[in-house]
Amino acid sequence: MTNANTLLLQAESQCHTRGVRFTPIRRRVLELIARHGGGLKAYDLLDKLSTEHAAARPPTVYRALEFLIEQGLVHRIESQNAYVACACPEHAHGFQLLICRHCGYVEELHLDEISDQLASRAKRQGFNVERQTIELQGLCQNCLTTNESSSCQ
């Protein structure tokens, strides 16, 4: 897992290269998400931001999230209505998320062949894919090991 400081530096560089503004609020939202590790809901972000910025309101958070998603810096976890930092923002293709149903850990995969196959099949059927979300839910290695240990006793 890439550390939050590295992600923030990558984000600053990417935004500068693209000529888009990486405002302090956008930066802080990305930092909060990146430091959290698992999925973080918009209202949890708002709670954290409002302690630092009295003017923080839901539209502020949602606009920042929209920007971060558009720039490929954050992914929305559809099943949880939560957000996670993109571990590989320079990667322009599809992604898949492994989500631990016990601890909330999220890991990003880049199996381009799966994304390409799905897009190709959709195209053959006359469908234009605009967004693709693949979420795999189960137990991470730590929770799996913990569950196996506790069931053995």
TrEMBL record:
<keyword id="KW-0963">Cytoplasm</keyword>
<feature type="binding site">
    <location>
        <position position="143"/>
    </location>
    <ligand>
        <name>Zn(2+)</name>
    </ligand>
</feature>
<dbReference type="GO" id="GO:0045892">
    <property type="term" value="P:negative regulation of DNA-templated transcription"/>
</dbReference>
<dbReference type="InterPro" id="IPR043135">
    <property type="entry name" value="Fur_C"/>
</dbReference>
<keyword id="KW-0238">DNA-binding</keyword>
<keyword id="KW-0678">Repressor</keyword>
<dbReference type="InterPro" id="IPR002481">
    <property type="entry name" value="FUR"/>
</dbReference>
<dbReference type="GO" id="GO:1900376">
    <property type="term" value="P:regulation of secondary metabolite biosynthetic process"/>
</dbReference>
<feature type="binding site">
    <location>
        <position position="100"/>
    </location>
    <ligand>
        <name>Zn(2+)</name>
    </ligand>
</feature>
<keyword id="KW-0862">Zinc</keyword>
<dbReference type="Pfam" id="PF01475">
    <property type="entry name" value="FUR"/>
</dbReference>
<dbReference type="GO" id="GO:0008270">
    <property type="term" value="F:zinc ion binding"/>
</dbReference>
<keyword id="KW-0479">Metal-binding</keyword>
<keyword id="KW-0408">Iron</keyword>
<dbReference type="GO" id="GO:0005829">
    <property type="term" value="C:cytosol"/>
</dbReference>
<dbReference type="InterPro" id="IPR036388">
    <property type="entry name" value="WH-like_DNA-bd_sf"/>
</dbReference>
<dbReference type="InterPro" id="IPR036390">
    <property type="entry name" value="WH_DNA-bd_sf"/>
</dbReference>
<protein>
    <recommendedName>
        <fullName>Ferric uptake regulation protein</fullName>
    </recommendedName>
</protein>
<dbReference type="GO" id="GO:0003700">
    <property type="term" value="F:DNA-binding transcription factor activity"/>
</dbReference>
<keyword id="KW-0804">Transcription</keyword>
<feature type="binding site">
    <location>
        <position position="140"/>
    </location>
    <ligand>
        <name>Zn(2+)</name>
    </ligand>
</feature>
<feature type="binding site">
    <location>
        <position position="103"/>
    </location>
    <ligand>
        <name>Zn(2+)</name>
    </ligand>
</feature>
<dbReference type="GO" id="GO:0000976">
    <property type="term" value="F:transcription cis-regulatory region binding"/>
</dbReference>
<comment type="subunit">
    <text>Homodimer.</text>
</comment>
<keyword id="KW-0805">Transcription regulation</keyword>
<comment type="similarity">
    <text>Belongs to the Fur family.</text>
</comment>
